[in-house]
Amino acid sequence: MTLLELVTFLRDNILDDNGGEGVDWTAYSDSDFDSIQLRWENEELVTNINEAINQVYRRTNYAKDILTFDVVAGTRGYTLPAYVTKVTNMKLANGKSLVEKSMSELWDLQTYNTKTGTPEYFIPDEVSNSIALHPVPIADETVSYFCYRLPKTKLSWDNKDNSPELKEEYQIPMLNHAAFLCYMKDEANVLDPGRAATFSAMFDREFPFTSAYSNIRKGRTSNRPVKYGGI
After folding, report:
1. pLDDT at 198
2. DSSP label of 153
3. pLDDT value for 227
4. What is the Cα–Cα distance from 184 to 197, expressed in whole angstroms?
5. Strands 63-71 and 136-137
6. How far lies 59's CA from each of 20, 211, 212, 217, in Å?
């Protein structure tokens, strides 16, 4: 489905928010939103859809990738792209695999802050989305790593014909989380915790939390799809 088809389905079949018969809501932007009877702007629906897609990725470890970063001699820590959610394996350029360790496992080493050499361990920090290497590298090189990630680009209302990087069978169930976010909007004519809870439960049944995501989430703080035939 394209973004336009997703927003149309969300408005017509889930939110019942299309401005009434004969209204072309697709032509309106946030600058003239008040001139028609819509509770949600097109742009905010797209924002909620993007977040719903992110939730599917996080909960199901949907996308796997092999990425690289350049290691600089004398530098221990490296910030990963914002779309990386979890690193599971890492290799030096010569093919040597690094062993994953937690900071608590290495903190008591007397040489932790001083030892230099060829890295043997990588220490992920999923809160700051960074990686530390130990020992501190003494040579420049390129490191490759296997990871789970979010979409690399977000959907935008400026490009309505784009489609999400998400299986079609997941796309309609994904909209339940977008609807949850819509009904949690803190405005008098929109906020509806009861309906929000209903859509949240529907999304949870389709995309239950993985244990890995649940642990990250704590640290930081089924219906089948309906086939859509087009507009």
Report:
1. 97
2. S
3. 38
4. 9
5. unpaired
6. 36, 9, 8, 10
Model pLDDT, residue 188: 82
Euclidean distance between CA atoms 18 and 21, whole angstroms:
8
User: How much is the pLDDT for 110?
Assistant: 75
Distance CA 168, CA 227 (A): 9
Q: Which two tokens stand for residue 106?
A: 């290495």
- Please state the domain extents for the chain: 3-61+166-219, 63-149
Q: Which two tokens stand for residue 70?
A: 């350049």
Q: Which residues contact residue 71 at a Cβ distance below 8 angstroms, ignoring those fewer than 6 apart?
A: 78, 119, 133, 137, 139, 140, 141, 142, 143
Is it true that the peptide bond before 225 is cis, omega within 30 degrees of 0? no
Q: How far is CA 46 from CA 8, 155, 211, in A?
A: 11, 7, 28
So what's the pLDDT on residue 146? Answer: 97
Query: Among residues 67, 68, 76, which one has the least CA distance to residue 120?
Result: 76
Task: Tell me the residue type at 171.
Answer: Q
Mean pLDDT per block of 10 residues along the chain (231 residues) reads 97 89 73 67 96 96 96 97 96 96 83 90 93 96 97 96 96 98 91 96 91 47 39 33
Q: Which residues pair with 48 in a beta bridge?
A: none
